[in-house]
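We read letters as residues; the fold follows as C-alpha coordinates. Both lines appear below.
***
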Amino acid sequence: MIIAEQLSARLGGFRLEQVSFEVPEGSYGVVIGPAGSGKTTLLETVAGIITPTGGTLRIGGHDVRTLPPERRRIGLVYQHGYLFPHLSVEENIAYGAGAAGADSGADSGADAVAEVVARFELAPLLRRDVVSLSGGERQLVAIARALAMRPRILLLDEPFSALDPARRARTRREVRIIHREWQLTVLQVTHDFTEAGMLGDVAILLDKGRVLQSGRPEEVFRRPASPYIAEFLGAENVLSGTARLLEDVAPDWIDGAPPLEADGHHALEFSSGSLTLYTVGAVPSGGQVYAVIRAEEVVISRTPQASSARNLFRGHIREITRLGAYARVTLDVDGVPLVAALTARSVHELGLAEGVEAFATFKAMAVHLC
Protein backbone atom coordinates (compact mmCIF):
# COMPACT_ATOMS: atom_id res chain seq x y z
CA MET A 1 0.00 0.00 0.00
CA ILE A 2 0.97 3.66 -0.34
CA ILE A 3 0.36 5.96 2.61
CA ALA A 4 1.37 9.62 2.48
CA GLU A 5 0.90 11.74 5.59
CA GLN A 6 1.57 15.48 5.44
CA LEU A 7 4.07 14.71 2.66
CA SER A 8 5.98 17.71 1.32
CA ALA A 9 8.53 17.97 -1.48
CA ARG A 10 10.15 20.64 -3.61
CA LEU A 11 11.10 20.74 -7.28
CA GLY A 12 12.59 24.08 -8.27
CA GLY A 13 10.09 26.73 -7.25
CA PHE A 14 7.18 24.25 -7.00
CA ARG A 15 6.16 22.58 -3.75
CA LEU A 16 4.00 19.70 -2.71
CA GLU A 17 2.44 20.84 0.56
CA GLN A 18 1.31 18.43 3.28
CA VAL A 19 -0.15 15.86 0.91
CA SER A 20 -2.07 13.05 2.61
CA PHE A 21 -3.75 10.06 0.94
CA GLU A 22 -3.88 6.27 1.07
CA VAL A 23 -3.99 3.69 -1.70
CA PRO A 24 -4.60 0.28 -0.08
CA GLU A 25 -2.55 -2.71 -1.19
CA GLY A 26 -3.79 -4.07 -4.51
CA SER A 27 -5.93 -0.98 -5.20
CA TYR A 28 -5.95 1.31 -8.21
CA GLY A 29 -5.46 4.98 -7.33
CA VAL A 30 -6.02 7.82 -9.81
CA VAL A 31 -4.61 11.34 -9.44
CA ILE A 32 -6.53 14.10 -11.19
CA GLY A 33 -5.95 17.82 -11.27
CA PRO A 34 -5.30 20.78 -13.57
CA ALA A 35 -2.01 21.26 -15.42
CA GLY A 36 0.76 22.32 -13.06
CA SER A 37 -0.95 20.93 -9.97
CA GLY A 38 1.96 18.64 -9.06
CA LYS A 39 0.74 15.28 -10.33
CA THR A 40 4.05 14.19 -11.90
CA THR A 41 5.98 15.60 -8.95
CA LEU A 42 3.87 13.42 -6.67
CA LEU A 43 4.64 10.29 -8.71
CA GLU A 44 8.36 11.07 -8.72
CA THR A 45 8.30 11.59 -4.95
CA VAL A 46 6.65 8.19 -4.47
CA ALA A 47 9.20 6.64 -6.86
CA GLY A 48 12.13 8.13 -4.91
CA ILE A 49 13.35 10.44 -7.68
CA ILE A 50 12.48 13.48 -5.55
CA THR A 51 13.37 13.42 -1.86
CA PRO A 52 10.60 14.55 0.53
CA THR A 53 11.24 17.65 2.62
CA GLY A 54 8.67 16.74 5.25
CA GLY A 55 5.95 14.32 6.30
CA THR A 56 6.01 10.55 5.89
CA LEU A 57 5.76 8.14 2.98
CA ARG A 58 5.14 4.45 3.67
CA ILE A 59 5.08 1.69 1.07
CA GLY A 60 4.14 -1.81 2.15
CA GLY A 61 4.25 -0.70 5.77
CA HIS A 62 7.83 0.64 5.57
CA ASP A 63 9.09 4.21 5.68
CA VAL A 64 10.78 4.69 2.29
CA ARG A 65 11.82 8.33 2.44
CA THR A 66 15.51 7.41 2.43
CA LEU A 67 15.19 4.24 0.33
CA PRO A 68 16.80 4.66 -3.13
CA PRO A 69 14.51 4.24 -6.18
CA GLU A 70 16.11 0.98 -7.33
CA ARG A 71 15.19 -0.73 -4.05
CA ARG A 72 11.51 0.24 -4.08
CA ARG A 73 10.38 -2.23 -6.79
CA ILE A 74 8.38 0.51 -8.47
CA GLY A 75 7.66 0.68 -12.20
CA LEU A 76 7.27 4.23 -13.54
CA VAL A 77 5.84 5.10 -16.97
CA TYR A 78 5.98 8.72 -18.11
CA GLN A 79 3.51 10.35 -20.47
CA HIS A 80 5.95 10.43 -23.38
CA GLY A 81 7.19 6.85 -23.05
CA TYR A 82 10.88 7.53 -22.49
CA LEU A 83 12.98 4.64 -23.84
CA PHE A 84 16.72 3.95 -24.18
CA PRO A 85 17.48 5.14 -27.72
CA HIS A 86 20.55 2.91 -28.13
CA LEU A 87 18.58 -0.28 -27.42
CA SER A 88 16.06 -2.12 -29.57
CA VAL A 89 12.47 -2.60 -28.46
CA GLU A 90 13.26 -6.11 -27.21
CA GLU A 91 16.32 -4.89 -25.33
CA ASN A 92 14.33 -2.09 -23.70
CA ILE A 93 11.76 -4.57 -22.41
CA ALA A 94 14.46 -7.01 -21.33
CA TYR A 95 16.13 -4.19 -19.39
CA GLY A 96 12.94 -3.93 -17.34
CA ALA A 97 13.01 -7.65 -16.63
CA GLY A 98 16.68 -7.39 -15.61
CA ALA A 99 15.85 -4.54 -13.23
CA ALA A 100 13.79 -7.00 -11.21
CA GLY A 101 17.05 -8.31 -9.78
CA ALA A 102 19.38 -11.23 -10.25
CA ASP A 103 17.44 -13.38 -7.80
CA SER A 104 14.68 -13.88 -10.34
CA GLY A 105 17.04 -15.68 -12.72
CA ALA A 106 17.50 -15.53 -16.47
CA ASP A 107 14.64 -17.91 -17.23
CA SER A 108 12.07 -15.97 -15.22
CA GLY A 109 13.30 -12.73 -16.84
CA ALA A 110 12.77 -14.21 -20.29
CA ASP A 111 9.33 -15.42 -19.23
CA ALA A 112 8.43 -11.92 -18.02
CA VAL A 113 9.46 -10.43 -21.37
CA ALA A 114 7.49 -13.04 -23.30
CA GLU A 115 4.39 -12.45 -21.19
CA VAL A 116 4.22 -8.66 -21.60
CA VAL A 117 5.11 -8.92 -25.31
CA ALA A 118 2.16 -11.28 -25.80
CA ARG A 119 -0.23 -9.24 -23.67
CA PHE A 120 0.42 -6.00 -25.56
CA GLU A 121 0.90 -7.61 -29.01
CA LEU A 122 4.45 -6.26 -29.39
CA ALA A 123 6.08 -9.16 -31.26
CA PRO A 124 6.15 -7.29 -34.62
CA LEU A 125 8.10 -4.45 -32.97
CA LEU A 126 10.80 -6.39 -31.15
CA ARG A 127 13.59 -5.89 -33.68
CA ARG A 128 12.70 -2.26 -34.34
CA ASP A 129 14.90 0.68 -33.40
CA VAL A 130 13.00 2.75 -30.85
CA VAL A 131 13.59 6.00 -32.77
CA SER A 132 11.46 4.56 -35.60
CA LEU A 133 8.43 4.00 -33.34
CA SER A 134 5.33 6.16 -33.29
CA GLY A 135 4.33 7.89 -30.07
CA GLY A 136 1.71 5.24 -29.32
CA GLU A 137 4.17 2.41 -29.98
CA ARG A 138 6.74 3.99 -27.67
CA GLN A 139 4.10 4.24 -24.97
CA LEU A 140 3.22 0.55 -25.27
CA VAL A 141 6.88 -0.45 -25.05
CA ALA A 142 7.37 1.77 -21.98
CA ILE A 143 4.38 0.12 -20.26
CA ALA A 144 5.71 -3.34 -21.15
CA ARG A 145 9.19 -2.48 -19.86
CA ALA A 146 7.79 -1.29 -16.51
CA LEU A 147 5.66 -4.43 -16.14
CA ALA A 148 8.47 -6.78 -17.17
CA MET A 149 10.21 -6.04 -13.89
CA ARG A 150 7.15 -7.38 -12.02
CA PRO A 151 6.92 -4.33 -9.74
CA ARG A 152 4.93 -4.31 -6.55
CA ILE A 153 3.79 -0.75 -7.36
CA LEU A 154 3.11 0.70 -10.81
CA LEU A 155 3.15 4.47 -11.32
CA LEU A 156 1.57 5.73 -14.56
CA ASP A 157 1.70 9.32 -15.83
CA GLU A 158 -1.00 9.71 -18.52
CA PRO A 159 0.04 6.31 -19.92
CA PHE A 160 -2.62 6.01 -22.62
CA SER A 161 -2.66 9.56 -23.99
CA ALA A 162 -0.62 8.79 -27.14
CA LEU A 163 -2.74 5.79 -28.18
CA ASP A 164 -5.55 5.85 -30.74
CA PRO A 165 -9.04 5.26 -29.24
CA ALA A 166 -9.27 1.53 -30.08
CA ARG A 167 -5.76 0.71 -28.85
CA ARG A 168 -6.29 2.92 -25.82
CA ALA A 169 -9.34 0.93 -24.77
CA ARG A 170 -7.56 -2.42 -25.24
CA THR A 171 -4.43 -1.31 -23.39
CA ARG A 172 -6.38 0.21 -20.54
CA ARG A 173 -8.34 -3.02 -20.18
CA GLU A 174 -5.16 -5.13 -20.23
CA VAL A 175 -3.49 -2.98 -17.58
CA ARG A 176 -6.57 -3.32 -15.39
CA ILE A 177 -6.53 -7.13 -15.86
CA ILE A 178 -2.82 -7.29 -14.95
CA HIS A 179 -3.49 -5.12 -11.90
CA ARG A 180 -6.05 -7.61 -10.67
CA GLU A 181 -4.15 -10.79 -11.59
CA TRP A 182 -0.85 -9.64 -10.12
CA GLN A 183 -2.50 -7.76 -7.23
CA LEU A 184 -0.51 -4.67 -8.16
CA THR A 185 -0.91 -1.39 -6.37
CA VAL A 186 -1.31 1.26 -9.07
CA LEU A 187 -1.19 5.05 -8.94
CA GLN A 188 -2.10 6.71 -12.24
CA VAL A 189 -2.25 10.34 -13.32
CA THR A 190 -5.10 11.04 -15.73
CA HIS A 191 -7.02 14.01 -17.16
CA ASP A 192 -9.79 11.72 -18.36
CA PHE A 193 -12.62 11.74 -15.82
CA THR A 194 -14.33 8.77 -17.48
CA GLU A 195 -11.08 6.82 -17.22
CA ALA A 196 -10.75 7.79 -13.56
CA GLY A 197 -14.21 6.43 -12.84
CA MET A 198 -13.63 3.23 -14.82
CA LEU A 199 -10.25 2.36 -13.32
CA GLY A 200 -9.99 3.94 -9.92
CA ASP A 201 -10.69 2.51 -6.50
CA VAL A 202 -9.33 5.72 -4.97
CA ALA A 203 -9.41 9.21 -6.52
CA ILE A 204 -7.03 11.95 -5.38
CA LEU A 205 -7.76 15.49 -6.52
CA LEU A 206 -4.60 17.61 -6.53
CA ASP A 207 -4.29 21.36 -7.13
CA LYS A 208 -1.39 23.75 -6.51
CA GLY A 209 0.53 21.02 -4.70
CA ARG A 210 -2.25 20.21 -2.24
CA VAL A 211 -4.86 17.46 -1.98
CA LEU A 212 -8.28 19.08 -2.19
CA GLN A 213 -10.28 15.87 -1.83
CA SER A 214 -9.78 12.11 -1.93
CA GLY A 215 -11.98 9.05 -1.67
CA ARG A 216 -13.86 6.63 -3.88
CA PRO A 217 -14.27 8.14 -7.37
CA GLU A 218 -18.06 8.03 -7.27
CA GLU A 219 -18.07 9.95 -3.99
CA VAL A 220 -15.59 12.56 -5.18
CA PHE A 221 -17.53 13.14 -8.41
CA ARG A 222 -21.01 13.05 -6.88
CA ARG A 223 -20.19 14.86 -3.65
CA PRO A 224 -17.49 17.46 -4.37
CA ALA A 225 -16.25 19.34 -1.31
CA SER A 226 -16.45 22.79 -2.93
CA PRO A 227 -17.93 24.55 -5.98
CA TYR A 228 -14.41 24.87 -7.42
CA ILE A 229 -13.98 21.08 -7.27
CA ALA A 230 -17.47 20.55 -8.73
CA GLU A 231 -16.76 22.77 -11.73
CA PHE A 232 -13.32 21.28 -12.29
CA LEU A 233 -14.81 17.78 -12.27
CA GLY A 234 -17.30 18.80 -14.94
CA ALA A 235 -20.50 19.27 -12.94
CA GLU A 236 -22.69 21.27 -15.32
CA ASN A 237 -25.12 22.60 -12.71
CA VAL A 238 -23.50 24.55 -9.87
CA LEU A 239 -25.94 27.03 -8.31
CA SER A 240 -25.22 29.62 -5.63
CA GLY A 241 -27.91 30.30 -3.04
CA THR A 242 -29.13 29.71 0.49
CA ALA A 243 -30.49 26.64 2.26
CA ARG A 244 -32.84 26.18 5.16
CA LEU A 245 -34.02 23.26 7.24
CA LEU A 246 -37.54 21.99 6.53
CA GLU A 247 -39.49 21.24 9.68
CA ASP A 248 -42.22 18.65 10.28
CA VAL A 249 -41.64 16.40 7.26
CA ALA A 250 -42.59 12.74 7.21
CA PRO A 251 -39.81 10.17 7.85
CA ASP A 252 -40.41 8.74 4.34
CA TRP A 253 -40.37 12.21 2.72
CA ILE A 254 -38.06 10.90 -0.02
CA ASP A 255 -38.09 7.36 -1.36
CA GLY A 256 -34.67 5.73 -1.28
CA ALA A 257 -33.13 8.35 0.99
CA PRO A 258 -31.48 7.56 4.35
CA PRO A 259 -33.84 7.93 7.31
CA LEU A 260 -34.25 11.61 7.99
CA GLU A 261 -32.24 12.88 10.96
CA ALA A 262 -30.17 9.68 10.89
CA ASP A 263 -26.46 10.32 10.48
CA GLY A 264 -27.16 14.04 10.24
CA HIS A 265 -29.56 13.82 7.28
CA HIS A 266 -32.34 16.39 7.11
CA ALA A 267 -34.86 17.62 4.57
CA LEU A 268 -33.57 20.89 3.14
CA GLU A 269 -34.87 23.63 0.86
CA PHE A 270 -32.40 25.43 -1.40
CA SER A 271 -33.12 28.73 -3.14
CA SER A 272 -31.16 30.27 -6.02
CA GLY A 273 -32.82 33.31 -7.56
CA SER A 274 -36.28 32.23 -8.69
CA LEU A 275 -35.42 28.53 -8.37
CA THR A 276 -36.34 26.52 -5.27
CA LEU A 277 -35.35 22.88 -4.98
CA TYR A 278 -35.24 20.18 -2.34
CA THR A 279 -32.53 17.89 -1.08
CA VAL A 280 -31.45 15.71 1.83
CA GLY A 281 -28.24 16.16 3.75
CA ALA A 282 -26.47 17.82 6.64
CA VAL A 283 -27.56 21.30 7.62
CA PRO A 284 -25.02 23.63 5.97
CA SER A 285 -23.12 26.16 8.05
CA GLY A 286 -22.64 29.76 6.96
CA GLY A 287 -24.71 31.87 4.63
CA GLN A 288 -23.83 31.13 1.02
CA VAL A 289 -24.30 27.55 -0.13
CA TYR A 290 -23.78 25.85 -3.49
CA ALA A 291 -26.00 23.15 -4.98
CA VAL A 292 -24.40 20.68 -7.39
CA ILE A 293 -26.53 18.57 -9.76
CA ARG A 294 -24.75 16.47 -12.36
CA ALA A 295 -26.32 16.61 -15.82
CA GLU A 296 -26.87 12.85 -15.97
CA GLU A 297 -29.19 13.13 -12.95
CA VAL A 298 -31.59 15.49 -14.77
CA VAL A 299 -34.48 13.90 -16.72
CA ILE A 300 -36.04 15.91 -19.55
CA SER A 301 -39.63 15.31 -20.75
CA ARG A 302 -42.19 17.17 -22.83
CA THR A 303 -44.97 16.70 -20.25
CA PRO A 304 -44.85 16.43 -16.44
CA GLN A 305 -44.04 12.85 -15.47
CA ALA A 306 -45.49 10.94 -12.53
CA SER A 307 -42.48 10.47 -10.26
CA SER A 308 -41.39 10.36 -6.63
CA ALA A 309 -38.73 12.96 -7.48
CA ARG A 310 -39.19 16.12 -5.43
CA ASN A 311 -37.80 18.52 -8.01
CA LEU A 312 -39.88 19.31 -11.11
CA PHE A 313 -39.42 22.46 -13.22
CA ARG A 314 -40.98 23.82 -16.40
CA GLY A 315 -38.93 25.83 -18.83
CA HIS A 316 -37.92 26.29 -22.45
CA ILE A 317 -35.00 24.75 -24.31
CA ARG A 318 -32.24 27.35 -24.56
CA GLU A 319 -29.55 25.30 -26.28
CA ILE A 320 -28.75 21.80 -27.51
CA THR A 321 -25.09 20.84 -27.89
CA ARG A 322 -24.51 17.56 -29.71
CA LEU A 323 -21.45 15.47 -28.88
CA GLY A 324 -21.57 12.44 -31.15
CA ALA A 325 -24.14 10.00 -29.76
CA TYR A 326 -24.85 12.27 -26.80
CA ALA A 327 -26.13 15.78 -26.23
CA ARG A 328 -26.22 18.46 -23.55
CA VAL A 329 -29.64 20.11 -23.32
CA THR A 330 -29.94 23.44 -21.49
CA LEU A 331 -33.38 24.26 -20.11
CA ASP A 332 -34.11 27.87 -19.13
CA VAL A 333 -36.17 27.89 -15.91
CA ASP A 334 -37.14 31.50 -15.17
CA GLY A 335 -33.68 32.67 -16.20
CA VAL A 336 -31.80 29.87 -14.43
CA PRO A 337 -30.11 27.33 -16.79
CA LEU A 338 -30.40 23.62 -15.98
CA VAL A 339 -28.26 21.25 -18.06
CA ALA A 340 -29.27 17.65 -18.75
CA ALA A 341 -27.31 14.85 -20.44
CA LEU A 342 -29.30 12.88 -23.01
CA THR A 343 -28.60 10.58 -25.89
CA ALA A 344 -28.93 12.11 -29.34
CA ARG A 345 -31.68 9.57 -30.02
CA SER A 346 -33.67 10.79 -27.00
CA VAL A 347 -33.36 14.39 -28.22
CA HIS A 348 -34.82 13.31 -31.57
CA GLU A 349 -37.59 11.14 -30.10
CA LEU A 350 -38.68 13.90 -27.70
CA GLY A 351 -38.71 16.44 -30.50
CA LEU A 352 -36.49 18.80 -28.55
CA ALA A 353 -35.42 22.05 -30.21
CA GLU A 354 -34.57 25.57 -29.13
CA GLY A 355 -37.63 27.36 -27.77
CA VAL A 356 -39.64 24.18 -27.11
CA GLU A 357 -41.34 23.89 -23.71
CA ALA A 358 -40.03 21.01 -21.62
CA PHE A 359 -39.83 19.76 -18.03
CA ALA A 360 -36.78 18.89 -15.93
CA THR A 361 -37.02 16.37 -13.09
CA PHE A 362 -34.41 15.17 -10.62
CA LYS A 363 -34.45 13.49 -7.23
CA ALA A 364 -33.64 15.24 -3.99
CA MET A 365 -30.77 12.79 -3.49
CA ALA A 366 -29.25 14.05 -6.74
CA VAL A 367 -28.66 17.48 -5.20
CA HIS A 368 -25.40 17.87 -3.28
CA LEU A 369 -24.82 20.96 -1.14
CA CYS A 370 -21.34 22.29 -0.43
About this structure: The chain is about 25% helix and 35% strand. The domain at 227-369 is CATH 2.40.50.100 (OB fold (Dihydrolipoamide Acetyltransferase, E2P)). Residues 195 and 344 are 22 Å apart (CA to CA).
